[in-house]
Amino acid sequence: MSTIAVELAGITKRFPGVVANHDIDLAVRKGTVHALVGENGAGKSTLMKILYGMQKPDEGTITVDGEQVVFNSPADAIARGIGMVHQHFMLADNLTVLENVVLGSEKLHGIGGGARRRINEISDRYGLGVRPDVLVEDLGVADRQRVEILKVLYRGARTLILDEPTAVLVPQEVDALFRNLRELKAEGLSVIFISHKLGEVLSVADDITVIRRGTTVGTAVPSETTPRQLAELMVGSELPTPETAESTVTDKPVIQVRGLTVHAGGGAASDRLTEPAGAAASAGPGLPAGDTAGADGTRRVLDDITFTIHAGEVLGIAGVEGNGQSELIAALIGLKRADSGSITFLGQDVTGWSTRRLRELGIGYIPEDRQRQGLLLESPLWENRILGHVTERPNAKGFWLDPKGAQEDTRRIVEEFDVRTPGIDVTAASLSGGNQQKLIVGREMSHDPKFLIAAHPTRGVDVGAQAQIWDRIREARRAGLAVLLISADLDELIGLSDTLRVIYNGRLVADADPATITAQELGSAMTGAVSGHLEHVEESTDNATDAAAEDEAR
Predict the structure, then answer these.
(1) Strands across the sheet with 534-536, in order?
(2) Bias category Low complexity: which stretches (predicted)?
């Protein structure tokens, strides 16, 4: 039996109007991966903030290596060997890996040769494969995550808290992360693993603690538990059996994109453009090769994108983050100008239209980064209800805002979408990530959009909320909603999509049939390989052209 590395006993934390943690117990053994699971709002984040010194408990004790401690800040936790890798990475893109790692810890090994040697030593020891002199903006998501892990190890962490570490990784990257975790375990380090992906939890964890509604409700042995049993322990009841999905695709085109091309640095965007993660200068094996530079020498972040989405259809886009998904979303929602190509919505050319006009016309938008793009974190929930729909009912009457209408509808969304909150006047920042997501989904679905851009719609939400969001999308699809689904959850893409396309280096390079493709095959295609269940996009170009001609004829 391993000795205890970290123990939390009787932890209670109260906030005005809510008890976030109530008498929670958690014991993490040395040299193990301990999974912490629970619904959104169950108290996981609060508990980890207490362990990391970001908040102080009202009751209970923390013991590290057999000694009771009190943390007044993250610096105190770091000094006792606690490190945390947040779901949203804390890296400066314009700095190198070395500069990010040593930032704030210059006294440990300096900022030059000593720091570089230590980084290389840690990287080699745990198989992280981190290069100190590479700019962070040139790294893919999985490499950035390894930099975050290296950062906490550099500071002497012996217990690592990983918050949703696989949320944006493809299957091959998840396998690599789990290999890294096994290396950490072999060296006697401990990992607290927070995730809503229960299959992964069961495959990587040595122990599992389940919390529900702010308190510990049980533990589970991975080898003796199924994902469904774990989910039911989390929610406190049996989960409904999923219904067999039937096709709802019609022949009515809702959104038609033709030859959409965007160059790096061109147009206006809401966020900084990044280099494509995992994309090489030329296409990967089995994919079409070609020049991706524009006439002015700039790189094409989107290269001749063409597709049609019909009423009742979900088109899924699979790709490693940074391969053009963000730019595609920005172009479709009016946040970025395309250099060439056209966008037709319900038969009307809307190329170059403003975001407000597109929203009023019936385009819904679930953004990929809820905190940066979807919410005003320091504003109350009812004000966040208004975002993106400032001219529409129930948020407005004529030319004037209608706060009362927005407040009443926010209460409806909170109840209907099970947003865990003490009230609508609390700030969005006070909600857990999953409850923030449910608020956004509720807001967007409340306006009966004709076309929904859904970017990672269930990222960071629990299994119950995930099923609820999926059901909402399926219900709206049956009523004729067209959906562009972009997600890092390959099971979500396969399960929800009627049609699947793979984006790589700014191009749609392959088509896949959701009925036959596996997550492993899809993950391989995302990193540059085409399997037997995928088709080169050129092979289906004629079909796309024929479909466009048929659409115009109608």
Answers:
(1) 363-366, 451-455, 482-486, 314-318, 499-504, 507-512, 534-536
(2) 276-290
Query: pLDDT digit of tens for each residue in the chain (554 aa)?
Result: 569 999 999 999 998 778 889 999 999 999 999 999 988 778 888 999 999 999 999 999 999 999 999 999 999 999 999 999 887 778 888 899 999 999 887 777 777 788 898 899 888 888 788 888 888 888 877 788 888 888 888 988 899 998 888 877 777 778 888 888 888 898 899 999 998 888 889 999 999 999 988 899 988 899 988 888 888 888 776 555 545 456 788 999 999 999 999 987 654 433 332 233 333 332 333 333 333 455 455 678 899 999 999 999 999 999 887 788 889 999 999 998 889 999 999 999 999 999 999 999 999 999 988 888 889 899 999 999 988 888 888 888 888 888 999 999 999 999 998 898 889 999 999 888 788 999 999 999 988 899 999 998 988 777 777 888 888 899 899 999 999 999 888 888 998 999 999 998 889 988 888 888 887 788 778 876 655 455 655 434 444 444 444 444 44
341 shares a domain with 393: no
Residues 333 and 411 in one domain: no
Residues 266 and 358 grouped into a single domain:
yes
Residues 121 and 230 in one domain: yes
User: Number of structural domains, the chain?
Assistant: 3
One DSSP character per residue, 275-294 reads PPTT--SS--TTS-----B-
CATH number at residue 37: 3.40.50.300
Range of the domain at 422: 368-448
- CA within 13 Å, CB half, 158: 14
Asked if 315 and 201 sit in the same domain, the reply is no
Residue 140 within any structural domain of the chain: yes
Q: What are phi and psi of 405, to 5 degrees?
A: -65, -40
